[in-house]
Amino acid sequence: MCSAFHRAESGTELLARLEGRSSLKEIEPYLFANEDSPVLGDILEFHGPEGTGKTEMLYHLTARCILPKSEGGLEVEVLFIDTDYHFDMLRLVTILEHRLSQSCEEVVKRCLGRFFLVYCSSSIQLLLTLYSLEAMFCGHPSLRLLIVDSLSAFYWIDRVNGGESVNLQESTLKKCSQFLEKLVKEYRLVLFATTQSIMRKTSHLREGPSSAFTHPSDAGVDYRPYLCKAWQQVVKHRIFFSKDDSKTSNQFSLVSRHLKSNNLKKHFFIIGESGVEFCSYVS
Amino acid sequence: MGLLRAGLCPGLTQDVVQLLRGRGIRTVVDLVSADLEEVAQKCGLSYKALVALRRVLLAQFSAFPFNGADLYEELKTSTAILSTGIESLDKLLDAGLYTGEVTEIVGGPGSGKTQVCLCVAANVAHGLQQNVLYIDSSGGLTGSRLLQLLQARTPDEEEQAGALQRIQVVHAFDIFQMLDALQDLRSTVAQRVTNHMTRERDSGKLKPALGRSWSFVPSTRILLDTGEGAGASGSQRTACLIKSPRLPTGFQETVDIGTWGTLKQSPALQGHPT
User: Fold this and answer.
1) How close B219 comes to chain A (CA, Å)?
2) Nearest residue on chain B to A245, alpha-carbon basis
3) Of B32, B62, B248, the CB nearest to A250
4) B residues 212-241 near A, CB within 8 Å?
């Protein structure tokens, strides 16, 4: 159905894609452990507890994409799939207004015209929506960025609905993961998906004063994989978010790990009125 | 959800359902993800009909994408910020409760959570003339306390009665009753919940109850605590912003729950002839 349409468009699409290929490379170099930025067709996971800046980072990336080239943006389209109804349009607009040199309604609306939002309230609806969105990817060659916030929203509901069988519990998310991989490869997109740290890592009981409790700084300390294997397999980059809990600092940090090469990089950032701002020092 | 049955959508007759089931296609997902040419051959159904069926099912069950510019237009006309009636709390909330969001108040017993809810209800019903749905699961709401708060705002008995009428109270002592009450709500509302504090087992740190799965849901969280220091009078409380989509966290304000609800404390009434 869509493949015939696809072939007929391949000439102009190819040009758009070649152009697009270079345009997403600079989306946010700080996020990547390897020297190279995401290749179109990559899947990246943002993982971390709540309040650590994952959604803010998504707004930052979205703004980067939808702003016009004259304002330092990439002028590409973004599709944002919201599964927990957290998306805050007013916050996105505030970030855009702060980043534009002249923030008039017209320009803001033109940027927002490159942004698409879908709400999904169950994993089955997510899967069916991905199927119907395939037509949209066909028709929008400048749609380069796909965001899912968050992929773990239905975890407990799926577990209940699947009864005793783990296969049944995971089957819809497994299909979603496989279909996302297919979409991302076929339409040369980049996918950013967030997952919440809803599982507690069983920490060893520590006796003694709380000051002896050192902050873990390595990647993966609070990471217990709980989503299905199919998802673990399609992720290329995993980025862990955390926040320094001490009262004096409002700093966030992220550790980016490229899963194949195992390169790790740590960065710090703060969140201001205009969104995420990376601190210049790097560890 | 998702089982194919006759009448689920136009074109899905009992015969079609049986034929599909015979080939292992039972759910909407099965049909949408199947290779329709293969299915057409195996089931003896027309390929065109199956393609049409797939399109109808997708249109019916998938979510529809909104364009950002349209969404923004709609939001500009429908969002409101409701003042809580407590100046210091409004500061923490960046002017008040935002419609379309969930704000959570956490605190130990006696920290003033129910007081805050009553005060907000009184302010919204009287000062802003809006309807309030108050779902009470702790039994902390009394009509007399609400009336007291309203009496402190206005001596006019008709106004007090009018405000009380705008507050609808639902008692829900289990989660199912609460979900029922929420299902009936349709319009855009600002939602505010209270939550209790528990001590974390391992480190002894205080943390909000209901665990990690709930903690992601509210966009804003305020912690109420009894004031420190020997000099703190019984009605002093500190409110600390611990989660917010708009303001940096860690801000604290002192609120005096003894004087809540008085005219002095409510900025919404200043310059507003009601």
Assistant:
1) 7
2) B250
3) B248
4) 212-213, 215-217, 219
Residue A215's pLDDT is 36
Beta strands in chain B (DSSP E): 66-67, 81-82, 97-98, 102-107, 132-136, 167-171, 191-199, 206-208, 220-226, 236-243, 252-256
Q: Which residue has the tokens 């169950």?
A: A122
Put simply, the answer to whether B32 touches A122 (Cβ < 8 Å) is: no
Q: CA of B116: how far to CAs of B94, B124, B142, B192, B233, in Å? A: 17, 12, 14, 10, 18
Residues whose CB falls within 8 Å of the CB of residue A235, separated by 6 or more in sequence, listed in order: A43, A44, A45, A259
Residues B120-130 have a mean pLDDT of: 85
**Mean pLDDT of the region B144-169:** 85
Q: With beta carbons under 8 A apart, name residues in chain A contacting B47.
A: none
pTM of the model: 0.76
Token pair 């009262």 in the structure block, residue: A247
- Locate B238 and state its tokens: 């500190």
Give the whole-angstrom CA distance, residue B77 versus residue B74.
Answer: 5
Across chain B, mean pLDDT equals 77
- In this predicted complex, what is the ipTM? 0.78
Beta-carbon separation of A93 and B61 below 8 A: no
Q: Mind listing the pLDDT tens digit for each residue in B203-262?
A: 345 566 666 666 666 777 888 777 655 344 567 788 888 888 777 777 788 877 666 544
B149 contacts: CB under 8 Å, gap ≥ 6: B118, B119, B122, B260, B261
- The verdict on a CB contact (< 8 Å) between A1 and B203 is no
Q: Which residues of A touch B213 (CB under 8 A)?
A: 156, 198
pLDDT averaged per 10 residues in sequence order, chain A, 283 residues = 49 56 64 68 89 90 92 91 90 93 89 95 93 89 91 86 83 92 91 84 43 38 75 90 75 84 84 84 52
Asked if A116's CB is within 8 angstroms of B65's CB, the reply is: yes
Smallest Cα distance from A34 to chain B, Å: 31
∠B94-B95-B101 over CA atoms, to 5°?
70
Instruction: List pLDDT tens digits, range A38-82.
Output: 677 889 999 988 888 899 999 999 999 999 989 888 899 999 999
Measured between beta carbons, which residues in chain A are less than 8 angstroms from residue B217? 84
d(CA B120, CA B194): 13
CB contact under 8 A, B243 and A51: yes
Q: Which residues of B touch A174 (CB under 8 A)?
A: none
> If we measure between CA atoms, which residue out of A113, A98, A103 comes closest to residue A143?
A113
Partners of residue A175 in chain B, C-beta under 8 Å: 29, 33
